[in-house]
Amino acid sequence: MDRVRFAIVGCGGMGGRHLLGLKELHDSGMGNVELVAACDLRRDNAEHLADEAERLLGRRPGVYTDMAEMVARIPDLQAVDITTEGGSHHRVACAAFDLGLHVLVEKPMGITVRACNQILAAQARAGKVLSVAENYRRDPMNRLTRALLDADAIGTPYLYMDISSGSGNRIVITPWRHMKHMGGMLLDGGVHNADLMLYFMGDVREVYAQTRLWEKTRYRPDDIGGLKSFYERWAAEMPASIQATAEDTLVSVLNFSNGALGQWTQSYAGHGQGSGLRVIYGSKGSMTPGGSRNGVPPVLHLDGAGEIRGDALLELAPSYHLDDISARLYGTDSTSATRPAAYQMPFPDADRKLLAIENYEFADCILRGTNPEVDGRVGRRAVAICYASFESGVLNRPVTLDEIEAEATGRYEADVNAHYGL
Questions:
Q1: Could you tell me if 172 and 292 lie in one domain?
Q2: Quick one: 125 and 218 in the same domain?
Q3: Are residues 66 and 171 in the same domain?
Q4: Contacts of 361 (CB under 8 A, 6+ apart)
Q5: Which DSSP state fits 259?
Q6: Do residues 384 and 207 touch, judged by C-beta distance below 8 A?
Q7: Distance (Å, whole) CA 194 – CA 136
Q8: pTM to 2 decimal places
Q9: Residue 358 falls within a domain, yes or no?
Q10: Shortest CA distance to 35 belongs to which of 45, 20, 374, 44?
Q11: Chain mean pLDDT for the chain
Q12: What is the pLDDT of residue 130?
C-alpha cells in the first residue's frame, strides 16, 4: 500500500492522541501513512512524542523545532498533521502550505474567521489538500443518526435542540481553554456542536445569541476525567487558579437554511448536577442522536409507534453502511461490521479510532486527489457558527454566517485578531 510521509506538528496532549490514532491505524492493517517527523517549539515535547512513536510504531521519527528545517532535511515529506493549540493554527497551516505540504489541522480550523480565511487563501495558492480534524461526525452512532435522517425516519426535521451545562468553576482540561485570545471552551468545545449541527441539519443561515462570563476565577480540578491519560504529563504545569477571559455560557437561537429552527445552549459554568440534552424533532417523531465516543445509539420516538432503539433502527436506515476503515475499527462481528447498531469500548479506545479514521481519510485524499469530508469551507462554517453567536451577543441582533465569513462584521473577534496581528 502506498503511504503518505508526514509529520505531527504540535507534540503536546493532542499530538499524543493523534499518535495513538496512528497506532490504531497501523494495527488495522490499512495503514496508509508513515510518521517521519515530530515537530514542536518545545524540543522536550517533540522528543517525548518521538520516544512514544518508537515504542508504539517501532520506528523513531526525526525531531525538529522548525518546520522549514524539517522540510529541508526530509525533502520527500508530503504532509503535516497540525495539533498545536488553536491560536497558532493559521500560522502553522499557512507556513506548511507555503512549504508545499498538505495539511490536516485540528479543530477549530482557525482562532477566528479571519484566521480561517487566511488558511483558505494559503491553500488556494498551494493547491494542496486541507482537511479539518473534526471527529464527532465520524462516530458510527452519528453516522447512523444521519442515515436515519436521510431515510425520513422522523419526517421533516424542524427543531434541533442542543443543551448542556456543567464544570462549575473548575479549569476544563487546560488553562488556555478559558482565555479569549485562545478561543475559549465555547469555541474549542463548541465547534464540535456546530459541526454536528451542520452534519445533521444542513447549513445554518443566522444566529441570535447572548453570552456571559460567569466564572472569572477558575480552579485546578482534582481530576480532568476521561482525558486524564492524554494530558497528565503536563498536569504539574497547571496553576492552582486562573483568571478566565473567555465567555463560559452561550444561549442561542439558530435559523437553518432549510427553515428549521435550532436552540443551542452551552454552559461551562454550571454548578451542581451537570446536564445534557440533544434532540431532533420532525414531522413524524423525534430522535435523540447517537453518542460520540461512547457507543450509545440513537433512539427514536415515532407517533403511533412508540420508542424504537437497537437493531430495529437498522431496518429504518437502509443506507447505513460504514466505510472500510470505520468497519475495520468499529465492526462488532463479521455480520454487523459495516452496520453496528451500538458498540462498547472505553472512551480512550473510541477516541483513537476516530483519529485513525481522520488520518486515513486525509492520506487517502492525498493519494487519490479527492476532497476530504470536512474540508476548509466546512471547517470555517463551524467556526462561523460560534463567532456568529459571539458577535450577536455583542451587537444584540441576529447575525448571518455569510456576513461573518465575509468579515462584514467582526467586533467580537477584533481584539483576538489584533492579538495575533491578523
A1: yes
A2: no
A3: no
A4: 131, 325, 372, 373
A5: S
A6: no
A7: 11
A8: 0.95
A9: no
A10: 20
A11: 95
A12: 98
CATH number at residue 92: 3.40.50.720
pLDDT tens-place string over residues 223-256: 656 555 555 666 677 889 999 999 999 999 999 9
For residues 117 and 123, give the distance between their C-alpha atoms in angstroms, rounded to a whole number: 10
Determine whether 131 is exposed, middle or buried from the number of CB atoms within 10 Å of its CB (0-12, 13-18, 19+).
Answer: buried
Does a structural domain hold residue 17? yes
Helices (H), 274-317: 312-315
- Domain final residue pick, 285, 317, 334: 334
Q: Residue for cell digits 480534524? A: 133
Nine-digit cell string for 202: 444542513
Give the per-residue SS3 of 159-205.
EEEEEEEEECCECCCCHHHHCHHHCCHHHHCHHHHHHHHHHHHCCEE
Q: What are the two backbone dihedrals, phi and then psi, of residue 44, each rounded to the nearest 5 degrees?
A: -65, -35
Beta bridge partners of 13: none
Q: Which domain holds residue 11?
A: 4-136+369-375
**pLDDT tens-place string over residues 251-310:** 999 999 999 999 999 999 999 999 999 999 999 999 999 999 999 999 999 998 899 999
Answer with the one of 334, 360, 394 that is the final residue of a domain: 334
Cα–Cα distance, 215 to 9 (Å, whole number): 33
Assess whether 150 and 186 both reside in one domain: yes
Angle (deg, nearest 10), helices 140-150 and 190-201: 30
Domain tally for the chain?
2
- Distance between CA atoms of 125 and 100, rounded to whole angstroms? 10
81 and 209 in a single domain? The answer is no
Q: How far apart are CA 289 and CA 270, in angstroms?
A: 23
Residue 333 — pLDDT band, cuts 50, 70, 90? low
Q: What is the pLDDT of residue 406?
A: 98
Range of lowest pLDDT (56-60, 156-160, 299-303, 332-336):
332-336
Cell (9 digits) for 306: 412508540
Q: Which residue has the cell 420516538?
A: 301
